[in-house]
């Protein structure tokens, strides 16, 4: 019995994502909404072992660990507070809170300034190295084709971007976190539901790196030993509590 329904009778025609979302929310979603949720995962499934979480999966393969342990560890660190699941949770929370404030008569510029004053950043804006995100246009195009691009939170996301760019202080453009958080809020997901939905966000990009590293000689991924690192900091110290150097 799955949320009051017989899994093998009532829910047998659900695909995996539909079942997963139903388990999180207890609600049914339209085929268009489900298609969008699928693509939120697909469009950021980069099989690049230089990414912080994929690297762990690859190192697990290169050290001859199991795929399950490698994927589990990589997914665990995917919840990184600055650029992973942590920022997703804060971003959707910001959009939902801010939308409520705007509907109560508050000014968007005041909301932005208050958020920056209290938290120093607004989740979902800015990106390391380049201040742009190549994933936005494909997902926006899909949302438009599904008639899911006119939600109030998505409009808010673009308004916040404009506010940041026009302020003259922070030239921060929207990144993927802001886009999917806004779309998730417009679908009706709460911050907790959205965080659970995004748990496997990067999963599809992890097995390729694991398999490639597994097929290579052991220990050849990032083969840099401590002796190869030139260190000019403080000398080795003794941790007196344990006596271990």
Bin the helical content: 40-55%
Q: Kindly, what is the distance between the CA atoms of the first and last residues, rounded to a whole number of angstroms?
A: 55 Å
Structural class: mainly alpha
Tally of DSSP β-strands: 0
Average the pLDDT over all residues and give the rounded result: 92
Largest sheet: none
Kindly estimate the percentage of residues that lie in beta strands according to DSSP.
Answer: under 5%
Rg computed from alpha carbons, rounded to a whole number of angstroms: 22 Å
Compute the number of helices. Answer: 11
Secondary-structure element pattern, one letter each: HHHHHHHHHHH
Poorly predicted ranges:
none
User: Which overall shape is indicated by the principal axes computed on the Cα atoms?
Assistant: globular
Tag the structure with descriptive keywords.
11 helices
Concise structural overview:
The protein is mainly alpha-helical and 245 residues long.
Describe, in plain words, how this protein is organized in 3D.
The structure is a single chain. The protein has 245 residues and is an all-alpha fold. It is globular. 28% of the residues are buried. The longest helix has 19 residues, at 85-103. α3 packs parallel to α11 (206-215). It has 11 helices and no strands. The N and C termini lie far apart (55 Å). The chain is 53% helix and 0% strand. The model has no long low-confidence stretch (mean pLDDT 92). The protein has helices at 16-25, 31-42, 52-62, 67-77, 85-103, 108-119, 136-145, 152-166, 176-187, 191-197, 206-215.
